[in-house]
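Standup notes
- HV: blocked on the assembly model, inputs below
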Amino acid sequence: MSEPTPSSTVQHDDLEDSPDDELVRSGRDAALTRRALVRAARRRFATEGYRATTVREIAADAGVNVALINRYFTSKEGLFAACMIRTSDELDIRTPDRPSDLDGVIDRLVAHVVLAPDSDDPLQLLLLLRSSGDENADLIRRNTLEHFTRKLAAAAGWNADDPGTAPVLLRAQLAIATSLGVVMLRTSAAVQPVASADIDELTDALRDIFRALLTPRPTK
Amino acid sequence: MSEPTPSSTVQHDDLEDSPDDELVRSGRDAALTRRALVRAARRRFATEGYRATTVREIAADAGVNVALINRYFTSKEGLFAACMIRTSDELDIRTPDRPSDLDGVIDRLVAHVVLAPDSDDPLQLLLLLRSSGDENADLIRRNTLEHFTRKLAAAAGWNADDPGTAPVLLRAQLAIATSLGVVMLRTSAAVQPVASADIDELTDALRDIFRALLTPRPTK
DNA sequence: GCGCCAAGTAAACGAATGTTGACATAGGGC
DNA sequence: GCCCTATGTCAACATTCGTTTACTTGGCGC
């Protein structure tokens, strides 16, 4: 009888060709290890969900020993919280300051949606993540999504003080919902044809929808 | 040392007040048990995801012994397939035979999306379910989604033999993606305003989008 | 009323999960 | 150069997962 492979952790000598480690791990560097873990965790949490992701998978992706997750983040939940906090920050940065530039906002949103499946864009985690079983994480996600909705709606002419513009807020959120759905179909299920659609074609189609949704229209 | 509670299965004597069992379980009825399991599984799979759902939870929800899942459905995956198959059937039924009735199709889709959060509508499972970590389960979902996409696209004038209508297929899938996103925002995260939007208002907005997406438009 | 088979139960299994503690080692301060 | 601490490794843990096996129980045909 042959000996079973004793462990599922991969050694750092067979990282395959994954360029996940933006820098070559030369020596011992706690900060680098933490970043690698967060990056790997973001991808896994986004594509597999919180509970379906195992810490051993994350550690393997990051080319790091499993126990370091608990060393640096106390627990799996702590690692998840670390991913979420940074996500919230980055979304604020990407929000435009000039509400008039609706086309620019749309282009940026479309770019995020189209490119999300291949990146570890924090937006992807925000969009994909479902109920995690962690109340605080869910709250952060809801607040961030609502914040982003208001920003997008403002670019489309929504005014919090003008109840007449309320429909714009709803339409902005439908645009976000569409983004969420597209990202899910492309990353989570690889459903055709959207999963392998031509980038330009998909971009055009999305831009059409978002413009139709968000372009100021006085009529009902 | 106190004895640990030996099992997480609940007896059928403390079903709480859940009306999940549409009929009182008087005697032994295999068909009833199977239906109860499928119903409970649909809700759990839809709200928690495949891998995050445990067979013991499902059995407890259905007020049934865990082993019966394996007896009637061979495995957790078999139970999932049973949920999906019925979903596929219902979607087929709801698909019109007359492709010209686009408005009717749209109305039905919108109704499903709007009502999904409060029901155990099979469509909800289809829309909410994410990457399950189980290859066969993912394949079932992908095939069902693609099948439904083609049905919807056909109602909007898509013809598999006419490459010129390919964009319609993509747009139909964007409509599905939007549905998926809306259902997720409403059920999974309760994001405002879409979560508490007026039903009629939401219905109108969705109908507008889907018509704009799917109404035959000869121009590029 | 009785036996027989379907329906349901209980307990255990191996594998996988998150976590922990003891140990090994690199690398900079002195 | 030596040691001391931060960093990383290894093996084990308790628990939970899906599944299986042996068993009990209920209801229908005769």
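- HV (later): unblocked. The CA atoms of residues 140 and 169 of chain B lie 20 Å apart. Residues 80-214 of chain B form a domain with the Tetracycline Repressor; domain 2 fold (CATH 1.10.357).
- Next: hand off to the docking folks.
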